[in-house]
Protein 1
Amino acid sequence: QVQLVESGGGLVQAGGSLRLSCAASGSFFSANAMGWYRQAPGKQRVLVASITRSGSTNYADSVKGRFTISRDDAKNTVYLQMNSLKPEDTAVYYCNTAPFRNYWGPGTQVTVSS
């Protein structure tokens, strides 16, 4: 069964932290890389972080040094630790393979207040 379920979002003040989780079905998690994407209101969905099966990571410049992506293969779960959050991080966050497949979960809303 195809499944991507994101969780962990919420409302946080600027400078705060959140940890997102994504439970993925095996068909997704067996991909070479998993990623976290975000879509702000009125903007396109963009990749912010990715991690390969070997643990290599990449980050968008806008989140580098503040966000950390990790994965737990035993749980088919990908995480995104977000620190020093800024109002411009406000978006719906999604996980998917990287590059993405044409299936998206519901996402999780992250709202950062100033």
Protein 2
Amino acid sequence: QVQLVESGGDSVQPGNSLTLSCVISGFSVNYYAIGWFRQAPGKEREGVSCFKSEDSDTRYVDSVKGRFTISSDSAKNTVYLHMNSLTPDDTAVYSCAAKVPFFREYGPCSLSSKDYDNWGRGTQVTISS
């Protein structure tokens, strides 16, 4: 079965950077999509970024464009979320999710949580001075 394990969450001051990792296991196909989502207290879950393995397509929510970058290391079965210029508004539990399989003809990867079948438990990111 598909398993995802996040790590890298921390408490840092505004303006700093963090890199989150999502280690993926339990499937052998090379065609998948990974999404990073976040949920702040009292708010709905929000899609932050996604990655499509077959063509390395990526998407970002407007609020993180230019600050966050999603990347993949296939040798390590890991997808990263590099976060720069962090602000208190980025405080949330960050989770990664997988859609397997996800082929090129499916179109762009999705920032909607309903399109993902498998979820990690999340990692806490706190931005505070």
Protein 3
Amino acid sequence: QVRLVESGGGLSQPGGSLRLSCAASEGIPYIYIMAWYRQAPGKQRELVAALTSSGTTNYADSVKGRFTISRDNAKNTVYLQMNSLKPDDTAVYYCKFNLFWGQGTQVTVSF
């Protein structure tokens, strides 16, 4: 069974950077979309960034210009580079490959 393993979460001060990674435990025959979602306490899960197999990207308005999604096809891995972090970015971040979800990694932005 495919399992997605996330890493890179943690604590950052406002204005800082973090890089999230998400790797599939085994090969997925065809990954048509990789994405990052997040869920803050008391809020619904929301799409942060997505990257299709053709290279098309989509970002939430709140992260445009600050976050970058990228992939390493050889490693079945997706990354989320997060710069200029804000307290509002605090949430559990989940990766998603097609219909498979990761377990989530906590990102906290605070002094």
Protein 4
Amino acid sequence: QVQLVESGGGLVQVGGSLRLSCAASGRTFSSSVIGWFRQAPGKEREFVATISRNFGSTAYADSVKGRFTISRDNARNTVYLQMNSLKPEDTAVYYCAATDPIYNPTIYFTRVGQYNYWGQGTQVTVSS
């Protein structure tokens, strides 16, 4: 079982930066694939970024590629999402997600249904 708590959201101006954190409890965190998703009002939850168990494999949505960076610190059971050059269309509730333990160290996942555990979300608002 993994419990996830996001933090770091807030109000920022266009072009600004935020760093989201996702703190996890549970002994299996280092064996889990971690993803960030977001959901804007009236829209479906969408993939943002993901990172494999061994840090070596990452993937990003085209809309955030080059602006967002996902990283993880397994010693601290924490995953980060560094968001730079923020745009109004980045406004959403951001969710951290984790899988059950994964054997493959380099695999990652981009679909909502591939994750087993979710945080409560943190609001990011980008004002123009």
